[in-house]
Amino acid sequence: MKFSVFYQQALARKGGEQALKSLLPPVTEKHRLAEVGDDRYLSEITRCIFKAGFVWRVIENKWPDFEAAFEGFVPAYWQQVPPEVLEQLATDERIVRNMQKIRTVPENARMIMDVAKDHGSFGQFLAQWPSTDQVGLLLYLKRNGERLGGNSAQYFLRRVGWDGFILSHDVVTALTRAGILDASPASKKGMSQAQEAFNRWHEETEMPISHLSRIVSFTVDN
Fold first, then answer.
1. What pLDDT does residue 19 have?
2. pLDDT tens-digit readout, 121-171
3. N or C: which end of the chain has fewer CB within 10 A?
4. Which residues cross the membrane (predicted)?
5. Mean pLDDT to the nearest integer, 46-75
6. Are the beta carbons of 174 and 220 closer than 8 angstroms?
7. Taking a C-beta distance cutoff of 8 angstroms, is the pair 193, 182 a contact?
8. What is the per-residue pLDDT across 88-119, written as a single tens digit (0 to 9) for each?
9. What's the fold here for domain 28-158?
């Protein structure tokens, strides 16, 4: 299926080209990704983990307090944080007191520090990973991080501006209706089917994959 089919549907639903363009997510240039500090990546990973299965607005409103409670999310500190600090956070009213999610911070800090040893920084690692192999990156984050399966890693990548798709409910519905996706979107097969389609449309349109993904989502009734 040509991407123009999705594009025309999205145009009709969103009121024209300018309205559609205003809704597309920003894409960060690779050199900008490389310049972002590792503390910001740990912060964004944690934000997406805490949002999962929770009211997003609550997490966003509390996020300045999260930053204060986690002292800026410096990976070098959190990778070896004493257990008693985590226990204190579990009673800290400034944040959402979910101990399972709190415990992801040192685990993901260790992943970031390990990556930085090999690539210079986590940002440089993200910058060199091609958008045409998002499946490989998602599997890496799931295997080496904590609670980065499902859509959490996809939303993290979108928040930092890495150019990739999100297999949201609307995107999955649209791809399934089009006969592109016939496997679970959480499976490697399903993600690979989506990747193949987005790669093909990227070559066809020269549009960022994140824009293609968002446009596809607009073809489904909300």
1. 97
2. 999 999 999 999 999 999 999 999 999 998 999 999 999 999 999 999 999
3. C
4. none
5. 97
6. yes
7. yes
8. 999 999 999 999 999 999 999 999 999 999 99
9. Endonuclease III; domain 1 (1.10.340)
Longest dimension (CA), the chain: 56
Q: Is the dihedral of CA 154, 160, 165, 166 positive or negative?
A: positive
133: tokens are 């192999």
One-letter amino acid of 71 = E
Contact of 167 with 194, CB cutoff 8 Å: yes
Closest CA to 184 of 149, 144, 158: 149
Which amino acid, one-letter code, is at 30? Answer: K
Residue 77 has pLDDT above 70, yes or no: yes
What residue ranges do the domains of the chain occupy? 28-158, 164-221
The phi-psi region of residue 161 (left if phi > 0; otherwise alpha if psi is between -120 and 50; otherwise beta) is left
CB 31 within 8 A of CB 127: yes
**What is the radius of gyration, based on Cα positions, of the chain?**
18
3 state SS of 157: helix
pLDDT given for residue 36 in this prediction: 98
From CA 16, how far away is CA 19, in angstroms rounded? 6
In the chain, what percentage of residues exceed pLDDT 90?
Answer: 98
Question: Are the CB atoms for 119 and 128 separated by under 8 Å?
Answer: yes
Half-sphere exposure of 26 (CA within 13 A, CB side): 8
Q: Which residue has the tokens 């998002």?
A: 134
pLDDT at position 222: 65
Token pair in block for residue 55: 């009211």
Q: What is the pLDDT of residue 27?
A: 98
